[in-house]
Design goal:
homodimer, DNA-binding, 389 residues, five-stranded mixed sheet, 12 helices, alpha/beta
Chain lengths: 389, 389
DNA sequence: CATGTTTGTTGATTGGGTGAACTTACGACA
DNA sequence: TGTCGTAAGTTCACCCAATCAACAAACATG
């Protein structure tokens, strides 16, 4: 590693500290926390300020001594655009370094069994509107990331399969070649992996390791370990929905028998509760509140199956917390007790540690947010590559 | 990061290159591979040589130009000691930086349902002999690591449970306080995680991500991802034996129903083949060769269950290869086809990628070797901390 | 208004990597 | 046998980034 690399490393450390600190830190705070000297930090902060990545707040008076100048992530200077295609909406969202949404467009509709190229065309249109808005506001676009609920093979696709959408083998190269997506780095990734990043940020400072479960028709998951999303060899980790619950159970669309999806996926839940498959989850919770035995049994079965699957996972990767997202958020009150029952008997380390099950704190837009954040993380990892000379 | 840290980082980079290079590299080779200048590499190599971590071979003549001086890991200067307690043997093995075994003592016996403190006493005795031998040979002992087939809680225990040995809640602090273990850093870790390290080294340059499965009475596993062993929150990852194969299957010693261990663990296999539980696996392979239908059915069932469990795991963590160790090595020919059958139907990404199943290339002593190597890895990560001034 | 305190900056210094020139040691070739 | 070309390793002046101590700035305190 060269000396230049050392400087860029420290630049990254300082920027990360500004972004992740709970309270806006002063130069002296950063020096204390990182072990660098105030002189070094000052020099690095100056570079970050001139690169419009960091901004100064008015000096904070009130304490004895020279007032500290609080440093915050710059607002509305650099932004990343997260795109998302999901079963019931499309969206484009620009997020700046401070984590604020700078521009956004969403379209609610049903995209099951939709035509990929038509839908991707809509996504490009939304992205173009958002990017145009950023241009007008003088916000630099550092990159675009598309969240898809399926197996994405590599940064530019193809999308191998997205069962929820009914898509299969969709080539994305043409998509990324269109303006305005060709103007900046652009890529695609799995929805659950990206949503987990948003959840991680939301829980910053509390936990850094958990399994994020994103349920809809299919059930995706992402393992967050020590603040990093575990991607696996091809970025295809987290196919929780195709965990085998009963090896001789009902046949799944994937061809195997007894996949979790057939017990705890949305379609399976609605069917078991004798509700229309395409109706919103709200109807299931309504039925539960009305005291429907079928609905209660459906949720019980789903919770049991989810408990079996999560138990396996916890035994295999020793993760201390599970965060339930997607349709499980609304069902959590009824679902979680059944999950915990199963976990208690199945987790081997149970006598000495506890696996907690929580509900996601991010909304349905988590993937879009996470997609944008992934790109912002790259700025933090290497600010020099993004113009911090 | 300070300048001193930069230097120590580069020292680590150079040492790692010497250790991991297929052919002994010259200073110039290292400079070319790392991007450092020859001058810098020379200075770092001199430090490593005076710290007795690296040695020079005679100049390699034959090509035009000044002959290069090949650099190799130093032999018999620094060594780490790996200790192991397993169902049928105890061992202590000292390995030097070159990966060679410098001293070794093993004891074969049956340690099922053994008394922990008596056995640990034997281990200390073996370790003392090995360390005394190292002392006599002038080899510095950099650390000791004990491999145990169970849940080890933290670097110094306690050992929460080791079903194969019949141990439970064994305090290890007294063990580590005894001489000669108190002389250098000492710790304990899970057997499968350590054996996976040995397997990783054996496959250096070929694969860096795989799931290592270590089967005996219980079935442990370790996920190796990109050259790193994934430990999980407490280091308790890899409890593959307690993956649920059939949620209403046979009751396991752990209390849950249908654990893999009850299908594919050694006792389960022997019992299904109507063979004495304590007899060696050899008897099962003999029965298979004799054409025993019971034995074939037992292995078929085990392979099927293992396939279900591994399928789940592959779907969840996207690992491209499985390496079977322990008793599966002898059974591989009969077992693997059944495993592959199940994987083919259950792995979601199967149409686009292939999960390969291979047999371990390390012997029964893999954990001991891996334990020693883990400590040697720490030298590589921070040579300055081990006397490379 | 003087004092103490903390922040941020300045300039000389330290130290680690760099680059070019140099030395060394070999094969190739006449 | 001697010269030349080549590549490895070393030397040394230099550059650059972090450091340290001194200093200036800006506030609270009394």
């Amino acid at each position: 590693m060269s000396q230049k690399a050392l400087r860029e490393h420290n630049l990254s450390v300082v920027l990360r500290h500004v972004l992740e600190c709970a309270e806006p830190p002063s130069r002296a705070d950063i020096a204390g926390a990182t072990g660098l000297t105030r002189a070094t930090v000052s020099a690095l902060v100056d570079r970050l300020i001139s690169a419009r990545m960091v901004a100064e707040l008015p000096p904070a008076t009130g304490r004895v001594g020279r007032p500290a100048v609080p440093l915050v992530p710059a607002r509305r200077t650099l932004a990343a655009v997260g795109l998302e295609v999901n079963v019931d909406y499309l969206g484009a969202r620009a997020v700046d370094l401070s984590g604020r949404v700078v521009a956004e467009r969403t379209v609610a509709a049903d995209f099951r069994r939709s035509e990929p190229h038509a839908v991707l065309g809509q996504v490009v249109a939304l992205a173009a509107e958002v990017i145009a808005e950023l241009d007008r506001a003088g916000v630099a676009v550092v990159g675009v990331c598309l969240a898809l609920p399926g197996l994405v093979d590599g940064a530019h696709g193809p999308l191998r399969m997205a069962p929820n959408l009914g898509w299969r083998d969709v080539d994305l190269t043409a998509f990324f070649r269109q303006p305005p997506l060709d103007r900046q780095p652009a890529r695609a990734a799995n929805e659950a992996n990206l949503a987990a990043r948003a959840e991680l940020r939301r829980r910053r400072g509390e936990v850094s390791s958990f399994l994020y479960v994103s349920a809809d028709v299919g059930i995706g998951a992402a393992l967050v370990s020590d603040g990093d999303v575990f991607l696996g060899q091809h970025g295809w980790s987290g196919e929780l929905g195709h965990t085998c619950v009963e090896p001789r159970g009902p046949r799944c669309a994937c061809g195997a028998l007894g996949c979790l999806e057939q017990y705890a996926g949305k379609d399976a839940l609605m069917r078991a509760a004798r509700l229309p498959v395409d109706s919103p989850v709200q109807e299931l919770t309504d039925a539960l509140e009305r005291g429907s035995r079928l609905a209660a049994a459906a949720v019980r079965r789903a919770g049991w199956a989810l408990g079996v699957a999560l138990g396996n996972f916890v035994n295999l990767v020793d993760v201390p917390q599970v965060v339930l997202g997607g349709i499980y958020v609304e069902l959590a009150n009824q679902l979680v007790p059944h999950v915990l029952d199963e976990l208690r008997t199945r987790v081997l380390s149970r006598p000495w540690t506890d696996v907690t099950v929580e509900v996601s704190r991010t909304g349905q837009d988590a993937a879009m947010l996470g997609a944008a954040m992934t790109l912002l993380t790259e700025i933090v990892d290497d600010p020099a590559a993004f113009g911090a000379a």
